[in-house]
Amino acid sequence: MSPDTLQPAAAATRSPSAGDEVPAVDILSAEKTYPNGTRALLPVDLSLREGEFVTLLGPSGCGKSTLLKMIAGLLEPSDGRLLLWRKPVAELAQTGRKMAFVFQSPTLMPWATVRSNVRLPLDLAGVPRAEAEARVSEVLALVGLAKFDQALPRALSGGMQMRVSIARGLVTEPDLLLMDEPFGALDEITRHKLDAELLELWRKKKLTVIFVTHSIHEAVFLSSRVVMMAARPGRVVEQFQIDEPHPRTADFLVSPQFAVHARQLQDSLLRASHEEDHP
Ligand SMILES: Nc1ncnc2c1ncn2[C@@H]1O[C@H](COP(=O)(O)OP(=O)(O)OP(=O)(O)O)[C@@H](O)[C@H]1O
C-alpha cells in the first residue's frame, strides 16, 4: 500500500476532528436502508476539514448519491448521525454557514432568463432586490456568463447551462458545495474546462466541496482526497490523498504524478468492483 493510501480503519478514526479545528462535515456511523429493504449504505464514518475537496468515487449503485443526499439533509439516515460544523444538518443555520447542492441536470426554469434563474434562491430567501441583483451580477461574472444574463436557458449550450446551475449554487455564498456528477452529461472537452473553472472557484472562495463522479481522471484532477466506495451493499472501502500543488493546469493531466494517482484509483476501483462480484 502506498503512503498516499489511508486504510479504511484510519478513516474511521476521523483524526481531522480530533484537534481544535471544527470539522465542516462529520459523518458518524451513518447508514441507509430504503423502505423497500435495499441496504444502500453500511455505516459510514467520514470527516471533512474546512477547505477540503473530497470526491466520492465508485461503481454504480455504491451509494454515492445516497450519502450526498444525507449530507444535504434531503434524506434521513436509518441510523447514525451527520453533523455540519458540529451541528445536526437540520440546524445548519445556527452555525452561520451555508450549503448548496448542484445536481447532474441543470434544472433551470425554461421560461426565465439566466439572471432570474440565478436569483431564485435569493428571492426565496427574501433578499432585497438591489442586493440580490448585485450578487447575481457578481456570480455571473465569476462563471463567465455576464453577457448572457438576459438569455433564456434554451439559447445556451449544455456547458453554459451547467455554469448557470453552478452560479445559482454559489449565489447564496455557500461554505459547503455538494455536487452530484455535475458534468457527467457533458462532452470531454467541456467537462475539462468546467473542472478547471470549478477548481479556481474552490480556491478563490475557500469552499469545502463534496463531488460525486464516475471519472477517475476528474477525481485526480480535482480532489484533495478521494473516497472509494463499493456496492451491494454500499460502503467506503479506501481513501486516497491527492497531495499535488495548485494551480493544477493541463500540464498536471499529463504528468507522471497524475498517472501514478490514476493508476492507484484504477486498481482500487477494480478491487471495489471485484468485491461486488465476490462479496
Ligand atoms: N429511493 C430509493 N429506493 C430504493 N432503493 C434506492 C433508492 N435510491 C437508490 N436506491 C438504491 O440504493 C443503492 C445506492 O444508490 P445510489 O443512487 O446512492 O448509488 P450511486 O453510487 O449514486 O449510483 P450511480 O453511480 O449509478 O448514480 C442502489 O442499489 C440503488 O438502486
From TrEMBL:
Keywords: ATP-binding, Cell membrane, Membrane, Nucleotide-binding, Transport. Gene3D superfamilies: P-loop containing nucleotide triphosphate hydrolases. InterPro entries: AAA+_ATPase (IPR003593), ABC_transporter-like_ATP-bd (IPR003439), ABC_transporter-like_CS (IPR017871), ABC_transporter_ATP-bind (IPR050166), P-loop_NTPase (IPR027417). Signal peptide: none annotated. One of its GO terms (molecular function) is ATP binding. The keyword ATP-binding applies. Residues 22-256 form the ABC transporter domain. The keyword RNA-binding does not apply. Belongs to the ABC transporter superfamily. This is ABC transporter ATP-binding protein. The lineage of its organism: Bacteria, Pseudomonadati, Pseudomonadota, Betaproteobacteria, Burkholderiales.
